Amino acid sequence: MKNLDSKVVENALMAFQKNKVMTLEDLKTLLCCSMITARRRLKDWQTFTSYNQNGRYYTLPHIPKFDTHGLWYYRNIGFSKHGNLKQTIVHFVGNSEQGLSAWSIGKLLGFAVHPLLPRMEKNNVLCREKIQGNFIYFSSDKVVSDKQISSYKAFASNKQQTDLPCHIAVQVLVEGIKHPEVDWELLVKRLQSRGVQVSLPEVISFLKFHGVEKKTTDSH
Fold first, then answer.
1. Where are the extended beta strands (E) located within the chain?
2. Are residues 47 and 107 in the same domain?
3. What is the mean pLDDT of residues 112-141?
4. Alpha-carbon distance 161 to 124, whole Å?
5. Is residue 153 located within the same domain as residue 164?
6. Which domain holds residue 56?
7. C-beta of residue 172 within 8 angstroms of C-beta of residue 187
8. CA 20 to 30 Å from 190, out of 136, 145, 149, 215?
9. Are 141 and 174 members of one domain?
10. Mean of the per-residue pLDDT values for the chain?
11. Residue 33 has what DSSP assignment?
12. Virtual CA dihedral for 6, 8, 11, 13, nearest 10 degrees?
């Protein structure tokens, strides 16, 4: 295999640095090489692959500034220090205290993941249980999942204290999915401006019950 010219590689890295993210096709064009060679370069550079956008985008390892969840966004392109989409979901679920609902996972990642989760369960990557009418995903490690399920059931025993009326709960969930970047104070204000009778403590309790971390302006 013919080695790439060092100047060409240097220019490609400079373009990568400037653009923050790049597709495989972009790199192939810059290096004037085959797809196989471009893929090899990405591997050598230990790039991160986007967990959304069908994994089309790559970024160099020193570029992302990951948040507390290990996620970083460039425009609408998301990257995870935990790996690809499936690896990131497994990490979030496996490290949660009480498992996570599909909505909670989608809230963390910024888009709905419902179609993917049943396949992950079928492939024994995740464990799913229906508890009090809710499908919750747990670790595939039985020792871990047993603890998560026990913790969830104990927490669910206080469900009556964390429930919202159905019509309000739906609006909270829809607003959260449509605007994952919005903190809970602003979410509540938006709902209240539309005449929805709900308070910030009620929303926080409801979302904590569904496995979503409290997110307020104080936590930024």
1. 22-23, 48-49, 57-59, 71-74, 77-80, 100-101, 126-131, 134-139
2. no
3. 92
4. 33
5. no
6. 6-80
7. yes
8. 136
9. no
10. 87
11. -
12. -70
**Residues 6+ away with beta carbon under 8 Å from 216:** 183, 184, 185, 200, 204
Kindly state the average pLDDT of the residues 153-165. Answer: 67
Tokens of 82: 């935990």
Once rounded to an integer, what is the mean pLDDT over residues 198-212?
A: 74
**Tokens, residue 38:** 């471009």
Q: Are 49 and 21 in contact (CB under 8 A)?
A: no
Taking each helix axis as running N to C, give the angle between helix 102-109 and helix 166-178, from 0 to 180 degrees, rounded to the nearest 10: 30
Question: What digits encode the pLDDT tens for the residues 13-35?
Answer: 999 999 999 999 999 999 999 99
Contact criterion met (CB below 8 Å) for 58 and 21:
yes
Residue 101, C-beta contacts closer than 8 angstroms, at least 6 positions apart? 134, 135, 136, 137, 210, 211
Grouping H, G, I as helix, E, B as strand and the rest as coil, residue 56 is: coil
